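Working notes for the structural subgroup meeting. M.R. asked for a predicted model of this chain before we commit to crystallization trials. I am recording the input and output together here so anyone reviewing the notebook later can reproduce the run.

Input as submitted:
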Amino acid sequence: MAHHIEKDEVSGTQTTGHTWDGIKELNTPLPKWWLYTFYGCVIWAIGYTVLYPAWPLPGGATPGILGWSSRGQLAQQMEVAAAAQKDTVDKIAAMSVDDILKDPKLLAYAQAGGAAAFKVNCVQCHGAGAAGGAGYPNLNDDDWLWGGTPDAIYTTLKHGIRYTDDPETRDSQMPNFGIDGILTPEQIDQVANYVVSLSGEQADAGKAEAGKQIFAENCASCHGDDGKGNRDFGAPNLTDKLWLYGGSIEQVKAQINKPRMGVMPAWTKRLDDAEIKELAIYVHSLGGGEAPVTQ
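Returned structure, recorded in token form:
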């Protein structure tokens, strides 16, 4: 490879002096428009790094002389939005859930706000469509342990379920009939067959008949003589074919032996009162909500 700078005879352009297999490299200058654009970008980049956060450091990044940040901008926008909504939010906070339902404008606002709060706080357990899952209630049906009126839902959300940090939490405890030795395995099998038969499912008739008396002596005090439950205790209806932990005989036996009992937090720890009311109204609107209690 030779290094001899000369002018190319064809183009008249000076060469770099590099040749490969007889091919000369031309020293063609960059177009001025491209060069000026490049210089402009360099100047703009230097200005940007001076004005805005740019260079990473061990403790963060250089803040820039303008002190701008995306978090700060979001906070300002949220403050503006909150100020615009303040009157409506104050009205919702001051009114009862039942009264909000009577005001079309407040109701529309509350449902939209409740839908947003549900997506952030509730879908992790109840699902995006609120259909729930094993151990997590379906909020679309009309099966409610403590009631499905707007006010009842509001109370449940506000104080939670079996939430130890709230003295007013919804609470119900089912005995460990098996592991505590209250019932024998045979008795559990019999009463499970009886419980399954209450909703018309297939069960052993002989075992179910024996389980009827066991149910009356051990379960009816909470679930009722007819098995339809008691909302004062949060005791579920055993006749409606809706099961939180499964409705097969084996699943019912497991629940009798050592009950699983879910926990929901008291949302006062995370949401303000207006947001809880909005969430209650949204859940009530999903399809299974019950009519408000009239005084």
